[in-house]
Design brief:
Helix content: 55-70%
Strand order of the largest sheet: 3-2-5
Structural class: mainly alpha
Distance between the termini: 26 Å
Largest sheet: 3 strands, mixed
Length: 323
């Protein structure tokens, strides 16, 4: 019986193997569940926060006053007053504290509530929440929403690839690249047009400060913490997987044959088969299988590179599951 020839590895094949390990560690890590839980918690607390903010605003600005100004605007145009449909609010609570000299001092506990997809979350990039919230969806589309957590505080990593990945994610979400006709149908547009409250005053939310009580402020802080948790668990998930991947990449560089990587995968309980070694050819054929090609032709749209990658990854995952 002829001895089967060992399959050699090259950079492309090592990359394909590494992708299998990365996907397994991501989807099966405890950090992934924490990230999912953080998103679910945010989804649960958001409508309650909106209701609370709406009640506070209406207490300061009764609906009948809003209706009065709306009527004045209808009669006198811009001279009738300022009315704005907003989803960004500053709320505060005043209390007596002690200054540095030990004297009584009036202090203010303030919270900023932002119901949009791009809130300012302390310690994170401007688009961290959006990338974290839609991470799984964008990964399935072949995008890389991890570009910002990968950067961390090392701005030297802002290479052209960083900006390409950033722009691709922002365009997908609708933050950039959407015209007035279709922007409302994007994720960004949907968030921008929902959870709004009519307020009397200018369109600048920082110019308005609604006073409330200590209990309400503490409840509102739970919302901002929920936003931060979505970002934090995303960062933790990436760090958890990347720590493993750094060691794996070093190990794979020393492997000359597939059976060495296969032995490692078996010890770690990670499904790995040699079908991925022909990914560049077999996956391309799978992308244009009769079923997939028919769908693409029916839409009469040339698939993007990201869409091809997404289809290939899905087929690869299915193949691994079967084996």
């Amino acid at each position: 019986m002829e001895k089967q020839k060992r399959q050699s590895l090259n950079a492309e094949k090592r990359k394909a193997i590494a992708d299998v390990f990365e996907n397994h560690w991501t989807e099966n890590s405890p950090m992934k569940q924490k990230h999912t839980d953080a998103i679910n918690n945010y989804n649960a607390i958001k409508p309650k926060t909106y209701e609370l903010v709406n009640n506070i605003v209406r207490k300061h600005q009764p609906q009948e006053d809003v209706n009065t100004i709306r009527g004045m605007i209808a009669k006198y145009n811009s001279s009738g007053g300022d009315l704005h449909h907003d989803n960004c609010f500053y709320l505060s609570h005043e209390y007596m504290g002690i200054d540095e000299d030990g004297k009584d001092e009036t202090k203010e506990d303030k919270v900023h509530i932002d119901f949009t997809l791009t809130p300012r979350v302390d310690g994170y990039d401007s688009y961290s929440f959006a990338n974290s919230y839609y991470r799984d969806e964008m990964k399935a589309k072949g995008l890389n929403p991890d570009y910002d957590v990968k950067l961390g505080d090392d701005y030297s990593k802002k290479a052209p690839k960083y900006y390409q990945e950033e722009n691709s994610c922002k365009e997908y979400l609708g933050i950039t690249g959407s015209n007035n006709t279709n922007r409302g149908t994007t994720h960004y547009g949907t968030w921008e047009n929902s959870d709004k409250i009519w307020v009397i005053g200018t369109s600048y939310c920082h110019s308005r400060n609604f006073k409330t009580d200590e209990t309400s402020i503490n409840i509102l802080k739970l919302y901002t913490q929920a936003q931060a948790d979505v970002c934090k668990t995303h960062r933790d998930l990436y760090s958890y997987v990347e720590t493993k991947m750094q060691k794996l990449r070093l190990g794979l560089k020393s492997y000359k044959y597939f059976d060495q990587a296969k032995a490692l995968a078996d010890k770690l309980g990670i499904p790995l088969n040699d079908g991925i070694l022909n990914e560049s050819s077999s996956m391309a054929l799978s992308v244009y299988s009769p079923e997939n090609l028919a769908n693409l032709l029916e839409d009469k749209v040339e698939p993007t590179k990201a869409e091809k990658v997404a289809i290939a990854r899905q087929l690869l995952a299915q193949q691994i599951a079967v084996n």
